Amino acid sequence: MESTELKQDRTIFEKIIDRDIPSDIVFEDDDLIVIKDISPKAPIHLLIIPKKPIKDIASLKADDQAIAGKLLLIAGHLSETIPGAKDFRLIANNGASVGQSVFHLHFHFLAGKAMDGF
Ligand code: 5GP
Question: Of 52, 66, 84, 105, whose CB is crowded by the most CB atoms within 10 A?
């Protein structure tokens, strides 16, 4: 019973990780998955998602240091391996009021067009 309840509480990203809903997967290993955003804001718009269901950056614990670092390292790897992604922008929304809509930590990897500075 408990596992059924937990299953229902899963975010869209957990369902993607579990292959319960489809996505366009660009990279995957034991700790993280990189998928194409379903509603891209740039020619290259990827989501870098840890498999561990951490809610947001503010919820990271000391134990998560390795995975937090890995999320950044993969961004460099994507930049080197995806044509047109040498320059990129990483965004992580932390909280609904700044635009977070999926409460499972993720970085937006945006590239392929010129972007204004903040
Ligand atoms: P947030 O708004 O939380 O920072 O980012 C969530 C992102 O997830 C959005 O850019 C949205 O387009 C993307 N997204 C939401 N649902 C899906 C889905 O089912 N598949 C994929 N690939 N991306 C999704």
Answer: 105
- 57 ligand 1 Cβ < 6 A: no
Q: Residue 91 falls within a domain, yes or no?
A: yes
Question: Does residue 80 lie in a domain region?
Answer: yes
Q: What is the pLDDT of residues 65-97, one digit of tens each?
A: 999 999 999 999 999 999 999 999 999 999 999
Letter for the amino acid at 109?
F
Query: Is the minimum distance from the CB of 39 to ligand 1 under 6 angstroms?
Result: yes
Count of structural domains, the chain: 1
User: For the domain that residue 61 is a member of, what is the CATH number?
Assistant: 3.30.428.10
Q: What is the four-CA torsion angle of 108, 111, 116, 117, rounded to 10 degrees?
A: 60
57/46 Cα distance (integer angstroms): 18
Task: Say whether 106 is catalytic.
Answer: yes
Asked whether residue 1 carries a pLDDT value surpassing 50, the answer given is: no
Provide the pLDDT for residue 47: 99
